[in-house]
Amino acid sequence: MKDCVLIRKKEVNNVLALEPMRGKRQLEPFRALFLSKKIPFGIMEDHEVSEAEAEVHKHEADLWIGLEGKAEFIYGGELVEPWIREGTHSNELGGEDIKGGTKVVLKAGDILYIPAGQPHMHTSSKTARMLIIKIPER
């Protein structure tokens, strides 16, 4: 049986107070907890990201909750030049872009659900921080 994990608001506030770094990254300590499979979520930061890799998760949905800033998402449509991501046993695909997708801007307080199998990507010209929750397919 897995252990319960409590993350206090103070810890979240400390993470959100970090100075942004250019690019995409999962913020600690959430990243370590996520990678060790202790939690199914993390806080993703996009800072000055003008280009992104498109992706598809075959067996898990993404639930995005905007915490700070704005991120532009493209979802749906088709992956352009898809490939199988290394080490994923063909459960995840990457792609150069998305053709025919829907564009939306995710802001603080917004929630975006992307079902398993849907192509998606996100960018931000400034800084966006988002809670990402991975939901296994039932």
Description:
The chain is mainly beta and 138 residues long. The protein has a single domain (9-136), classed as Jelly Rolls (Sandwich). The chain has 2 helices and 12 strands, in the order H-E-H-E-E-E-E-E-E-E-E-E-E-E. The strands form 3 sheets. Strands 1, 2, 4, 5, 10, 11 and 12 form a 7-stranded antiparallel β-sheet that branches. Strands 3-8-7 form a 3-stranded antiparallel β-sheet, with no helix packed on it. A hairpin with a 7-residue loop joins strand 7 and strand 8 (92-95). The longest helix is centred in the N-terminal third of the chain and has 8 residues, at 9-16. The chain is globular, with a radius of gyration of 15 Å. The model has no long low-confidence stretch (mean pLDDT 93). This is Cupin 2 conserved barrel domain-containing protein. It comes from Candidatus Giovannonibacteria bacterium RIFCSPHIGHO2_01_FULL_45_23.
Kindly list the characteristics that best describe this protein.
51% strand; 12 strands; 138 residues; mainly beta; Jelly Rolls
